Amino acid sequence: MSGKPKLHYFNGRGRMEPIRWLLAAAGVEFEESFLEKKDDLLKLQKDGSLLFQQVPMVEIDGMKMVQTRAIANYIAAKYNLYGKDLKERALIDMYVEGMFDLNEQLMSYGYQPADKKEQHFANMMDKATNRYFPVFEKVLKDHGQDFLVGNQFSRADVQLLEIILMAEECKPDILAKFPLLQSFKARISNIPTIKKFLQPGSQRKHPVREEEVPKVIGIFY
Amino acid sequence: MSRKPKLYYFNGRGKMESIRWLLAAAGVEFEEEFLETREQYEKLLQGGSLLFQQVPMVEIDGMRMVQTRAILCYIAAKYNLYGKDLKERALIDMYVGGTDDLMGFIMMFPFLSAEDKEKQCAVIVQKATSRYFPAYEKVLKDHGQDFLVGSNFSWADVHLLEAILMVEEKKSDVLSGFPQLQAFKARISSIPTIKKFLEPGSQRKPVPDDKYVETVRRVLRMYYDLKAN
């Protein structure tokens, strides 16, 4: 059995994408087992592999971990991307939880029914530009450092880059009013592990395409 | 200024209740400021106290913390309720994730229409008895210990007790197929700090009522049209 973490999910972003980003940022190679149809999920459930019968599930260090946050917390702590003390951790957690909230909206957009799409889009763009991005712009402005927390690269930086890029896929000029986020984006994208993950051929997933939606829904419902 | 943590929220459960439970379990006294009017909320917003314009917010150790999960993790770590190493922490995080999801179904309940309430009640009981309770029952059965993780009282135990009591409010005999959880419930309820929190007059909040729903809607100008899962 390989020592590498093994990710169980469908071949798309969903809730697993932040975990892929984090592992990639930490320079950790990982394997993936893709659910293609409902039977694949049923098999995992019958195996007893899924604590709450849900994916994401990541096999790592002898554990079958579920719950996105639990998995991300474990990886961040293991690979020193979680700050140096309780207070830095608190800041990272606050920022990352805000990002999770925005990510929920970004991630679910592609799965909205046609009649809800427009409103969902407007709402998520509004939240990105009026609630979340101004906060992180201000954090960077106030301390003038390269990274969000403790003058050190952390999961908060990884997660922020991820949502910036996702938001830009929806609205390419979304960072127009955020100069510090623009330079942050350039800076973090240049970190070697991140740069590699951003190249074609990496395990980064594309945004869900309309024609893929029925297949994904068929796995879970 | 008091050194006690100060909680800013409505006078009701919502997202703050798990924080009250954890502070109480840790034996930490706390103060509360209740949001009753839109003006109070706008004052907090204008003052820059709410990082993402949302409550819960907790003033603690010189920080104005927001985001329920961040606040809970901080309290758990500070008061040694987060396991002794990374692996125990991983288990606690997994278990808490499950009870969080379960309580999420209950949290929206008071905001639903009467018809949706009935549907949601069935969903809550179904999820509890077929997805969540069996998982925790098995954990306890497999290791035979008093607590969920690492033979030590942790956040996971507090959170599970909170979830059990909330589901029982919807269906009082919901634990009937779960002997381990019944014993767990009795055991954790007897821990002195928890026992105190369960007594009348504590800062534990009652089941949300229409007045609570009306206050939340008035203050936040949101949640007028929630649908069941």
Automatic annotation (TrEMBL), chain A:
UniProt protein name: glutathione transferase
Enzyme Commission (EC) number: 2.5.1.18
GST C-terminal domain location: 85-208
Residue ranges of domain GST N-terminal in the record: 3-83
Alphabetical list of InterPro entries matching this protein: Glutathione-S-Trfase_C-like, Glutathione-S-Trfase_C_sf, Glutathione_S-Trfase, Glutathione_S-Trfase_N, GST_alpha, GST_C, GST_superfamily, Thioredoxin-like_sf
Pfam families: GST_C_3, GST_N
Molecular function as annotated in GO: glutathione transferase activity
Family listed: Belongs to the GST superfamily. Alpha family.
GO biological process: glutathione metabolic process; xenobiotic metabolic process
Alphabetical list of PROSITE patterns matching this protein: GST_CTER, GST_NTER
Annotated organism of origin: Furnarius figulus
Assigned keywords, A-Z: Transferase
Keyword Mitochondrion attached: no
From TrEMBL, chain B:
Record GO biological process: glutathione metabolic process; xenobiotic metabolic process
Domain GST C-terminal, chain residue ranges per copy: 85-209
EC identifiers of the protein: 2.5.1.18
One of the Pfam families matching this protein, by short name: GST_N
Annotated coiled-coil segments of the chain: none
Keywords: Transferase
SUPFAM superfamilies assigned: GST C-terminal domain-like, Thioredoxin-like
Chain ranges of the GST N-terminal domain: 3-83
Signal peptide coordinates: none
Keyword Transferase: yes
Molecular function per GO: glutathione transferase activity
Top EC category: transferase
The organism's place on the tree of life at top rank: Eukaryota
Stated family: Belongs to the GST superfamily. Alpha family.
PANTHER family named in the record: GLUTATHIONE S-TRANSFERASE, GLUTATHIONE S-TRANSFERASE A4
Name of this protein: glutathione transferase
Organism taxonomic ancestry: Eukaryota, Metazoa, Chordata, Craniata, Vertebrata
UniProt gene name: Gsta3_0
